[in-house]
Write a structure and sequence with these properties.
The chain contains 17 helices and 14 strands. With about 525 residues, the chain is an alpha+beta fold. Helix 16 packs antiparallel against helix 17. Bound molecules: adenosine monophosphate and magnesium ion.
Length: about 525
């Protein structure tokens, strides 16, 4: 195997912090600090993504051995790697937090894949950097398993995301107080190697803007557009800093971000910490922390105990928060424009994108070609009653939509309530809640739905296929992740690999793997890590 080539355009294009120490500090007028990972005592490869390895021209076997295992654990560098931690700020829970930065992430370099594409490799948990503040720069196994699995699961679901190449156990203990309850304990440490074209966030632009460092803000915008949005530099649009290019760039970020949150809605994903430092400039899902998957459908649900009070990052609020974050980004870009009109035009793309994508997404979940959005229309009433029913008793969203695909439209008008509702029973956490009244109401909705499907004329078979292509059967339920974590913490990565294997084909029936598609068991309802997660990672 030929040794990979690494591109250093990020470090060459942008100003570096000249202080070589990794002591915590404010870093001014620099996009990054050169900092090497801190070695660990006994690294071992717990799991790897075969797809990402192949994309990079590597094999998973290669990753388990030196020199790659050294690189993935922070114990060595491959020729051409120039490691750095980048400098960014952000709004956390709606408040400006000043400088944050890669406090435990270190980018090793950008690997040029056999197809010529450039992929940044970033270790998460590789030791302190100038941005670590009072923390240790490390990550625990449980949060690393969650990031590794979810990055890959999201990609297989068709949701834009950063990827994960490897999950390495470090052999070193990391002390964490899981629920911030005054009970710190040592946990096994781990490092995930994340992969993305870039890890630039909204916060990278907010920080220099807040410091009135126009020179750095311009350099970052120029680099980002030139390197990651080259399609915007065609024809007469020669310079990345021309206002029309900047406007088109922001419009594209707005469009991708809107598209991203519609995907999250479709699959029932709740990010949990949508701070502006956790918003990718490419519109990727980034920074998997206390995220969760809706089990019982609940617009108010947040997996993040740190957010339990305000519920800013609840499932039903992600579109609004995405908008808030985009407005923050636009405000940071104001100094690059003579007037705010272009920024406002770019932000308008948000509503336009949602108006197009949301009904299309909902229609596809229901197996319909189109949904009429006009308030008061029959379609709007159908959707409204659907969401009311999903909230009427604890209903597993993932199972519900898979089972809805099984409902027979022919004869629905004449079928009795119990027969009509039968395919859905699996989706209810408390089937006894489905009393006569709720069953009658559900059946009424199913008859209306069946009539709507018949009007559109799609037969049941093709409708089922269409629904099953957008409604996953397998998602990374928190309790499944927890079972994989239990193994990985004991040094056994088999359950991580088994779960990853199922999550590779989330829309397929996969007979024999039903246990990965079951609703959350009762024991997981209140277990830490299954229903409650903190930011402690
Ligand atoms: P997050 O909540 O993961 O988005 O992190 C917010 C900020 O805290 C970022 O600047 C992180 O790099 C930093 N951070 C989180 N955990 C650690 C840690 N264990 N060591 C150093 N910095 C951290
Ligand atoms: Mg973060």
């Amino acid at each position: 195997m030929t040794s990979p080539r690494f591109d250093r355009s990020f470090v060459d294009a942008l100003p570096a912090d000249l202080n070589p120490s990794n002591a915590p500090r404010q870093v001014q007028r620099a996009a990054y600090s050169l900092v090497a990972p801190t070695p660990v005592s006994s690294p071992s490869l717990v799991a790897a993504s075969a797809e990402i390895a192949a994309l990079l021209g590597l094999s998973t076997a290669t990753l388990a051995e030196r020199p790659w295992l050294d690189a993935l654990s922070g114990n060595g560098l491959l020729p051409g790697m120039v490691p750095y931690a980048s400098c960014y700020g952000g709004h956390q829970f709606g408040h400006w937090a000043g400088q944050l930065g890669d406090g435990r992430a270190i980018t090793l370099g950008a690997l040029i894949a056999p197809d010529g594409a450039r992929h940044e490799l970033q270790l998460k948990g590789a030791g302190p950097t100038p941005y670590s503040r009072s923390a240790d720069g490390r990550a625990v196994m449980r949060s690393s398993v969650r990031e590794f699995l979810c990055s890959e699961a999201m990609a297989h679901l068709g949701v834009p995301t950063t990827r994960a190449l490897s999950l390495v156990g470090t052999g070193d203990a990391v002390v964490r107080d899981v629920m911030y309850s005054g009970h710190p304990r040592p946990e096994p440490g781990a490092i995930v190697c994340r992969v993305a074209p870039t890890f630039l966030r909204f916060g990278h632009f907010e920080l220099p803007s807040s410091r009135k460092d126009l020179s750095l803000l311009r350099a970052l915008a120029d680099y980002t557009i030139t390197a990651h949005f080259p399609q915007l530099l065609t024809g007469t649009r020669a310079s990345a800093l021309d206002e029309d290019v900047l406007e088109a760039w922001l419009a594209e970020i707005v469009r991708r971000t809107a598209q991203l949150v519609v995907h999250w809605k479709r699959v029932g994903f709740v990010h949990g910490v949508m701070n502006t430092d956790n918003m990718s400039i490419l519109g990727l899902t980034i920074d998997y922390g206390p995220y969760g998957w809706l089990e019982g459908f609940d617009l108010d649900w947040t997996p993040n105990t740190t957010d339990a009070q305000g519920r800013r990052y609840r499932y039903g609020n992600q579109v609004a928060v995405a908008w808030w974050n985009l407005v923050s980004l636009a405000q940071a870009l104001v100094p690059l424009f003579a007037t705010t009109a272009p920024l406002e035009r770019a932000l308008d793309v948000f509503r336009a994108t949602l108006e197009q994508l949301e009904p299309a997404m909902l229609a596809s979940k229901l197996g319909l070609e189109t949904l009429e959005q006009t308030p008061g229309s029959a379609d709007a009433a159908l959707v409204e009653e659907l969401f009311a029913l999903l909230s009427a008793t604890e209903t597993d969203m993932t199972i519900f939509f898979r089972r809805l695909a099984e409902v027979r439209t022919a004869g629905a008008a004449e079928a009795d309530d119990a027969t009509l509702c039968a395919p859905l029973l699996d989706a209810y956490y408390a089937p006894e809640d489905l009393d006569e009244a709720l069953r009658a109401r559900t059946a009424r909705w199913l008859r209306a739905y069946a009539a709507r499907c018949e009007r559109e004329g799609t037969p049941d078979g093709p409708r089922r296929a269409r629904m099953n292509a957008v409604n996953p059967k397998f998602v990374l339920r928190n309790y499944l992740a927890q079972l994989a974590i239990d193994g990985a913490e004991a040094g056994d990565g088999r359950e991580v690999e088994a779960l990853l294997e199922v999550l590779r084909r989330p829309y397929d029936e996969q007979p024999g793997q039903e246990r990965y598609a079951e609703k959350r068991p009762e024991w997981a309802r209140h277990r830490v890590g299954c229903s409650m997660l903190s930011c402690s990672s």
